[in-house]
What we know:
Layout (H helix, E strand, L loop, with lengths): L1 H8 L5 E6 L4 H16 L7 E7 L5 H15 L7 H8 L2 E5 L8 H7 L7 E6 L6 H10 L7 E5 L7 H12 L7 E3 L7 H11 L13 E9 L8 H5 L2 H19 L8 H14 L8 H4 E7 L1 E3 L2 E3 L2 H5 L8 E6 L11 E6 L6 E8 L19 E7 L3 E9 L10 E7 L4 H5 L5 H10 L9 H20 L5 E4 L6 H8 L8
Parallel strand pairs: 1-2, 1-4, 2-3, 4-5, 5-6, 7-12, 8-17
Antiparallel strand pairs: 7-13, 8-11, 9-10, 11-12, 13-14, 14-15, 15-16
Helix pairs in contact: 2-3, 2-15, 6-7, 7-16, 10-11, 10-16, 11-16
The protein binds NADP nicotinamide-adenine-dinucleotide phosphate.
The site of NADP nicotinamide-adenine-dinucleotide phosphate (NAP) has 22 residues, from helix 2.
Amino acid sequence: MRDSFMQEHGTNRPSDLIIFGGTGDLAMRMLFPSLYFLDSDGHLADDVRIIGAARSDLDRDGFLKTVHERLKSHIAADYYDEAQWQRFAKRIDYCPVDAVEGTGFDALAKAVRLDEGGELVCYFSTAPRFYGDICTHLEANGLAGKNTRVVLEKPIGHDLESCRAVNDAVGAVFTEDRIYRIDHYLGKETVQNLLALRFANSLFEPLWNANGIEQVQITISETVGVEGRWSYYNDSGALRDMLQNHMLQLLCLVAMEPPSTLDADAVRDEKLKVLRSLRPITKQENTLKSVAGQYTEGAVGGTAVPGYLDEAQQESRTETFVALRADIDNWRWRGVPFYLRTGKRLPYRYSEIFIQFKGVPHSIFPEESNLTLDSNKLVIRLQPEENIKLCVMNKVPGLGRDGMKLQEVSLDLSMTKEARTRRRRIAYERLLLDVLNANSTLFVRRDETEAAWAWVDGISKGWRDLDLKPKPYSAGTWGPAASVALTERYGHSWHD
Ligand code: NAP
């Protein structure tokens, strides 16, 4: 398996992966489990080493103990194997660093193998305010040469100005081709399957435009509240935390023109064109096209939960829900609404792209059969399950005396039987492997993040200029009533 990996990827250089913020929540919950699975599936070359770097004063054994405990608590027992852990643990080391003071970077420089012609990947899993400092210290310690790539976690700033500041600070040390901005939604299997569906089939393309599509909806619904991260979330809110990055990236993949190749810049050029074609939501349209909400106390899944303000006992105008209508001003999408909706403390957890095609122009089926011809829909579920369904009308089998009856059935396009029984990969697995292989197709380029912020800033500025407070909604409901009104205003309704 390992030999075939090396042939496939053509590299036998030693690679070191430094995870800054290696003791943090993201590293423990996502990055180490992903690396463990990549290793156990034979996708990590033998010479890949992983160095955790954070402030905590730990030695290697202390760090390994924490990683081991957290790994076992985060992955299903069926997938944990002690012998595999022992093999994986040999790759792991730890180095205490302080990103502000710059301490520990000299020790990192000794630990990595750039001098042996190796490659270095630095994953920034810390607060973004440290990204610039980390780059400066990497450079000062000879760790920022052409064989180094850096991975930036979201959020890249909280508006266009702060995003530019982070990009400038990192860009002062690393060229853009060595900067990998991660959006883990792009690592999801069904998101990549959307690319396959659109560009490996001729079936959909003739309909994939304003003539064939009635509306598109993208929903990311969470049941959880802020989970002890109130102060972080309060500075951000649903618009900046979810919509600016994950949801606009999904919108881009649905709406972009076919790229000429799967090459990173070919794909990212097309996504950028979509972001730049988003019609700004003006102050005048703001209340028609966007809704901000904030949850109050209620019940989710039968459990009583407090309201957002009760959790911190202080006033806040931060939105925990946002719904809006986006329009893309180009030939393909003129007039097609893209409804985006995300929120916390909603009735159930799911992420979905819903594409409704236009209905048939004329029904040949007699009215007395009491038929409604539902239009075709393509439903791409990203979580909790990953699948793609195409809803079509079909005859109800049988010899009904009162004529032909129709029903909507869904064709499961997503997975073969084999894929359904396979372990569902963590989205970070794909992305970590790609960055180790220097493939940036599924990463976000600087101009994309800045175009996304420019559009989102217009919406939050509208809220501020109009002095809008988020509308309250009870926890466990689908957001404020104004969200329902938003789609109904244009003759549509949310697909719940
Ligand atoms: P976290 O649990 O607070 O971890 C922060 C990490 O940064 C810790 O390892 C901490 O080290 C380290 N750190 C803090 N100050 C440092 C300094 N001066 N020098 C060096 N290291 C320092 O945060 P997180 O939840 O893992 O999030 C990390 C990043 O990922 C953030 O940008 C976040 O927005 C992003 N993100 C997180 C998630 C998630 O699910 N958690 C999801 C998406 C994006 P010590 O603990 O040793 O002090």
